[in-house]
Structure formats: C-alpha cells, structure tokens
Specification:
Helix 1 crosses helix 6, helix 4 packs antiparallel against helix 5 and helix 4 runs parallel beside helix 6. Strands 1-2 form a two-stranded antiparallel ribbon. Strands 3-4 form a two-stranded antiparallel sheet. Strands 5-6 form a two-stranded antiparallel ribbon. The termini are far apart. By secondary structure, it is mainly alpha-helical. The chain has seven helices and six strands. It holds the Pfam family ABATE. This is Zf-CGNR multi-domain protein.
Amino acid sequence: MELAYYSDYAVRLVNTEEPTRGKDTLTSVEAVRDLFGINASAARRATDADVTRFRSVRARLRAVFEAADTGDETLAVDLLNSLLLEFPVSPQISGHDHRDEDGRPLWHMHLADHPSNATAGYAAIAAMGLAFHLTEYGVDRLGLCQAPPCRNAYLDTSTNRSRRYCSDRCATRANVAAYRARKRLEAERSENSGLVAESAQRSTASGER
C-alpha cells in the first residue's frame, strides 16, 4: 500500500492556505480537483460544494501539524484519530494497469475512492497517509516551516530529524536573514567597543593633565 505517498495529500491540502500572509488558493472547484494530482477519476467527482468541505478538513489537518509543532503528541494523535474515525478508508487490491515482464498484473493494496463525495475520499486518504507517517517516524516528524512569515506544513524524512523548513527557498531565506542578523550584531558590538575604547582614552588623557 502506497501510504508514504498518501501522506503528501495532507501537506498538499494544508499548504493551500498561508494564514499569516492572508493567502488562500482553495477558492474554486478547479483548485480542489488539482489537489488530486494524477487521480483524475476522483478529481472529476468534485463539485462546488466540496470547496467549503475541503476548507473544513484543511483546518483540522493544520491543527494536527500545529499540535505536533508545539510538542503536544497526545493532542496531535487525538485530532488525527477523529479524522480517521469520520473518514474511514476503503482498501482494495489494484493492479493500476501495471504488469510485470511476463504480462501479469502487479497487484498491491490501494485506497479506493470514498463512496459519498470527493471531500470524504480525499480526507480519508490524507488522514491515513498522515497517520502512517506519524506512527512510522514519530510525531516530531510533522512540522511547520520555521522561516517567518511562512508556516507551511512539511513531513521530515531526514535521517537526523533536522528539517526545519518547508522548502529550499525558505531555508535559504532563513539562513540569509540569520547571517545578516549576525553581521548587524557584530557591527554593533564593534561600534560599542570603539566607543568604550575612545571613552577610556579620553579619561586617561584627562587624568594626565
């Protein structure tokens, strides 16, 4: 079962909104359909009503990441469990039209489209994928970008649990900001040291008179 792949569904949905920047790209049924990627059959089931429903699921998924980001493992798990209970998955065996060199189907487990609506199907896949990542790698592998004002979600798959940013772009921006801050601090310290030395020289000169 491609659960590692499914975990990206949650990140993809959460990052359609940037609350601190007031940005939201989930404003139309076309935007909803784009989230399904190559799953065209599921995307076609989306309607205008799914926009509001997707936003509701998005808020709940972000809450999972926020709880994990603050170190509240119990809350993160409880929030995710509520999604799993509300949107159960329907596993089925699938070949996806892929065959081996002998022409036999490459059977594997697959999460089927939810029978009720597009939102329920997407939520089930996203919650299951995120649950797999959490139980396989740990709650601390669910993160929110540490490069203000960005707070995009990400899944840390680094070997040393060192990821802090949602993208290389944010990592570069944060490193540049930190470098400039260090340079400003060094300049201020140098200036203050110069003023202290100058003051000391004046005091010495005054005492010698």
